[in-house]
Amino acid sequence: MTGAAHARISLTAWRQNLAVARRAARGARVMAAIKADAYGHGLIAAARALSGADAFAVARMDEAVALRNAGFAHRVVLLEGVFSAEQMQAAQSRRLDLVIHDPAQLELLEYADPRRPVTVWIKVDSGMHRLGFLPEEVAEVAERLQGMRAVAVPPALITHLANADARDEAVTAAQVAAFDRATSGLPGPRSIANSAGLLWYEDSLADWVRPGIMLYGVSPFVGGRADEQGLQPVMTLTSELIAVKHLRAGDPVGYGGTWCLPDDSRIGVVAIGYGDGYPRHAPSGTPVLVNGQRAPLVGRVSMDMLSVDLGPQSEARTGDPVTLWGEGLAVEEIAEQAGTIAYELLCCVTSRVPRIYT
Ligand SMILES: *Cc1c(COP(=O)(O)O)cnc(C)c1O
Questions:
Q1: How far is CA 96 from each of CA 58, 120, 142, 221, 295, rounded to the nearest angstrom?
Q2: CA of 96 to the centre of ligand 1 (A)
Q3: Under DSSP, is residue 25 helix (H, G, I), strand (E, B) or coil?
Q4: CA nearest neighbour of 86 among 62, 58, 59
Q5: What's the average model confidence in pLDDT over 77-82?
Q6: DSSP state, 283?
Q7: Ligand 1 atom with the shortest distance to the CA of 79
Q8: DSSP code of 304?
């Protein structure tokens, strides 16, 4: 038996969001970011729903292996590359594309099996200062790669935007310019844009775009909402009321008694908590939908439960449906309330919550 908490995943929304990405890409090829179990939605289901993408991007080898084992023949790009000779072999035998961002990875390529050339993406650090070669190192890295028999030529070129979610034009323009300078004269295809770049900054489209969050129906922009971009939420996190009680003004609710009823009211207990991935830091007042109506969360979120103030006149009853985010309640709004981003909320839905694909 499964409990009341479920994540309903809309395959239709997934496909429509991919179509939005395609239109915005204006002919650039689309690499769908499905790392971290497709942002908590389920890796293989995501790959199936998004099979119209031109490539998949993942962070780790086990994700790429799972895609191949499930039969996907798409290009699969390992965004962090490989870190050992064994991983290099695994990547070669599975025809994975590798991002290379570090001299140690150049060395692994030097000793790799020349009978199975791999496609590599030179990661350029255009200003984010996380992964990548500095702009002044790129020409030399490209030259070294051109001479390696285990490398398919020409290498592709990739960078990542640090401030596109804030629509920061100055920083983004500087990153694109730094990338262009570092890669000028190199023949390989180029990729710059994440979802935010794709939807907002035309000069970042290049040859390949790499949408992630928008495919899940979430705005990539700070303070943004999916519907502004024509996106539809893919995940709707739901549960049920498992208790409804009448309490009196002054009664405290939950651990620590951090919230007390200002007036007599009906309090509902919902079967979902931080053990399911609902953020414990969501404060009193965070909206929840009970029977489609907004009601405020009250008191601390527990591991398996949270409480809502249904209001004194409420007729809600045990078993009534509750939506925590998704259709009708933007996950972006919950993330703002909880002081985080929607990416984190989606990734953190735990494995005990069944994903139901519709
Ligand atoms: C995750 C990721 C993306 C997708 O980013 P979104 O903001 O989710 O669109 C693109 N590129 C790289 C390198 C990533 O790690």
A1: 10, 9, 19, 31, 48
A2: 18
A3: helix
A4: 62
A5: 98
A6: P
A7: 13
A8: S
Q: Which residue carries 């295809």 as its tokens? A: 189
- And the tokens for 341? 């981003």
Instruction: Give strand ranges (E) for the chain.
Output: 6-9, 29-33, 55-58, 75-78, 97-100, 118-123, 151-158, 190-191, 208-209, 235-247, 252-253, 259-260, 265-270, 287-290, 293-298, 306-309, 321-325, 355-357
Q: What is the mean pLDDT of the chain?
A: 97
Give how far Cα 331 sits from Cα of 26, 278, 327, Å: 28, 11, 9
Atom 15 of ligand 1, residue of closest alpha carbon: 79
Annotated domain spans of the chain? 11-218, 235-357
Q: Determine how many CB atoms are found less than 10 A away from the CB of residue 148.
A: 19
CATH T-level assignment (fold) for domain 235-357 = Lyase, Ornithine Decarboxylase; Chain A, domain 1 (2.40.37)
The number of CA neighbours under 13 Å toward the Cβ of 204 is 31
Q: Which CATH superfamily is domain 11-218 in?
A: Alanine racemase (3.20.20.10)
Query: What token pair was written down for 217?
Result: 């129906």
Note whether 11-218 and 235-357 share their fold: no
| Amino acid at the residue 356 | I
- Extract the tokens encoding 12: 């239709």
CA of 185 from ligand 1 middle (Å) equals 26
SS3 labels along 163-209: CHHHCCHHHHHHHHHHHHHHHCCCCCCEECCCHHHHHHCHHHCCCEE
Ligand 1 atom nearest to 211, measured from its CA: 9
pLDDT tens-digit map of 198-248? 999 999 999 999 999 999 999 999 999 999 999 999 999 999 999 999 999
**Which residues are marked as active site?**
35, 255
In sign, the C-alpha dihedral spanning 165, 167, 173, 176 is: positive
DSSP string across 85-129: HHHHHHHHHTT-EEEE-SHHHHHHHHTS-TTS-EEEEEEB-SSS-
341 DSSP 8-state letter: -
Distance 43 CA to ligand 1 centre (A): 15
Is the pLDDT at 1 greater than 60? The verdict is no
| pLDDT tens digits along 114-164 | 999 999 999 999 999 999 999 999 999 999 999 999 999 899 999 999 999
